[in-house]
Amino acid sequence: MCAGQGRDLLEVLVEHPRRVDVTAHLVELDERNVDRARTGVDGAGLTGVEVVKADASSTSAYEPLVPADLLLVCGVFGNITDVDIRTTVGALSSLCAPRATVIWTRYPRDPDLLPSVDGWFRDAGFELVSLETGSDGSQFGVGVHRLTALAQPYRPGVRLFTFLEDPDPTGTRRSN
Ligand SMILES: C[S@@+](CC[C@H](N)C(=O)[O-])C[C@H]1O[C@@H](n2cnc3c(N)ncnc32)[C@H](O)[C@@H]1O
Question: From the CB of residue 109, how many other CB atoms can be counted at a distance below 10 Å?
Answer without folding.
Answer: 16
